[in-house]
Design brief:
- The chain is 40% helix and 11% strand.
- With 124 residues, the protein is α+β, with helices and mostly antiparallel strands.
Length: 124
């Protein structure tokens, strides 16, 4: 079968578009779950509870504009203890009110915060 110069071949791009969409969804899911497993390993060694995250979202609360954070964390500390891990989006976070951990991070390891705050020169 030969094509004349006036006929154009039709290419159905819907399977290609669907495959590209599926690949994009898989890549986004992998990106949002890339830190999973590290906190769970630390939790098993230290017996600190891990607040279970959603499929690709972080840990609760999932409706932040309706949440009173002080009450939420007060309730979570009563349920889970002085320290627990949670996911803030994709980042694992240690939430603690234990004085020894707070002292170790803020006093003994304060050098790791040196590059975060730079007030520059103070003008007189």
């Amino acid at each position: 079968m030969t094509m004349s110069s006036g006929e154009l071949q039709q290419i159905d791009i819907s399977p290609l578009a669907f495959a590209a969409f599926c690949l994009t969804v898989l890549c986004v899911c992998w990106f949002l779950r890339r830190h999973r497993g590290h906190v769970e390993a630390v939790s098993a060694a230290t017996e600190i509870f891990v607040e279970r995250p959603g499929l690709v979202t972080g840990s609760p609360p999932h409706v932040p504009h309706l949440t009173k954070y002080a009450l939420h964390y007060e309730r979570r500390h009563r349920e889970l203890g002085n320290s627990f891990f949670r996911y803030d989006g994709v980042r694992p976070v240690l939430v603690t009110i234990e004085p020894s951990i707070v002292r170790a991070v803020l006093v003994e390891k304060f050098g790791c915060f040196g590059d975060l705050i730079d007030f520059g020169k103070v003008r007189t």
